[in-house]
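2024-03-11 09:14:02 DEBUG pipeline.ingest accepted 1 chain
2024-03-11 09:14:02 DEBUG pipeline.ingest length=196
2024-03-11 09:14:03 DEBUG pipeline.predict start
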Amino acid sequence: MTELFSIGYATKPLAEFLRQLRNHRIDAVADVRSVPYSKAFHDYHREPLAASLRAAGIHYVYLGEELGPRSKDPAHYDARGQVQFDRLQQAPLFQQGIQRVLSGRQKSLRIALMCAEKDPATCHRSLLVAHYLRHQQAINVQHIDHSGQLESEEALAQRLMRLNNIQADMLTPACECMTLAWQAQCRRHAYIKPGA
């Protein structure tokens, strides 16, 4: 089966975004934004982006309903109004989105999960989707960073430990530290309902 990737457009000009996709031989982009529009970067609105990708020979599919970070189900939120990714990962809709990604991968498509954030360490494409794929499907997503270089989900997990100052010791094994670092990062970056 083919590799699976993620990419954030952040402040990239569209031409650079397309160049990075071509460099990694991406066949399809799965847009996982809950809101597939940008206040500042109109090239990344859903419709013009789909047209630009199509012109470049890249498939576009919108999966923000299934794999986006803003659930419509109140059961996926805590008392503070913050989405809980571990709950969201169990939702039937999320599972449908995962199956669509896996189906595309079985067809030998090189898929990039796309969102807006520059750094996968602060984005649900890694904290929600790639984390699930790694731990439940044994798929190590390759994150295309802002400069176009790759960072594996494994390397990102190590970086989350450093970012959260969590280290393995005699009482806490590395695998548990990775979970603690992921949980801390989710608390810092998971979506919170406005006014909550």
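2024-03-11 09:14:41 DEBUG pipeline.report Residues 4-152 form a domain with the Protein-Tyrosine Phosphatase; Chain A fold (CATH 3.90.190).
2024-03-11 09:14:41 DEBUG pipeline.predict end
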